[in-house]
Amino acid sequence: MANDKAFQERLGKIFDHRSMADIARRIGLPHATVRNYFGGRLPAPEVLIKIAEVTNVSLNWLLTGKGEMYAGDPKGLDIGLVIDARIAEIVDRKLAERLEPDVQQLGTIDEPQPFDVASAIDKFDDPQRVMAEWFKFEGRKYPKDFGVVFFQGWESFSEDERIDAIHDAKKVLDRTLRNKR
Questions:
Q1: CATH top-level class for 4-103?
Q2: Which regions of the chain carry the CATH code 1.10.260.40?
Q3: Which candidate, 80, 132, 134, 170, has a CA 20 to 30 Å from the CA of 11?
């Protein structure tokens, strides 16, 4: 493509210069990926096709800026669907702006919650017991012969150091058990 700036301008135009987060939601891509497109990276062919389909923009126009902007007959657009989609985008954006950070998104309700290392440390104050509880939480048995150097000086560790020590020990133990298979 001869001029990446021109592509970025066309991309902004077809999405009505919305935020990158809005564009990412609309085409179902991570925000960082869309940011790369505005930073000069050209989308993969399948993404270009998806953008063209979502926006009804001509793929030729999207890539080169030449020809008609919209694919097909503009009269074929269902203005009701366009308005409904626009209203849905506005409502989603407004809700996202007002969501409190501690409100759980509906999409995460069925996802299992991760093991809460900090709570386990508070409850047991014993690194071996915390590790055993974590394995139990995962439906696995904690190996009794696991001598942990990660916990030497446990009494002098800060809260963050204790959490880090548990996480580090878990990573090493998981890797060791995986390699024994």
A1: mainly alpha
A2: 4-103
A3: 80
